[in-house]
């Protein structure tokens, strides 16, 4: 499922799975869009990112902090590197997909 991330959507999915856990393998929620909403996504319990952001070590550090329960550190990292994430995403997803199509 590809959708704009939002805390409400993530909470809704988590609530559904708590009521009726999926059979078999557990379900993982990953977010993308260059991790533009990454700090808030991690706060809602996502397991990580699936994005083309050029600095994966930043995303790994954010995710590691959140998984360790240190959301304050995850948000500090997010706030520190958000300008870089925004700058990198300026062309937009549509432009990137068109370039890849060529």
UniProtKB/TrEMBL annotation:
What is the protein name for this chain?
Uncharacterized protein
Report the SUPFAM superfamilies cross-referenced here. Aldolase
**Domain of life assignment:** Eukaryota
Q: Which Gene3D superfamilies match?
A: Aldolase class I (3.20.20.70)
Organism source for this protein?
Strombidinopsis acuminata
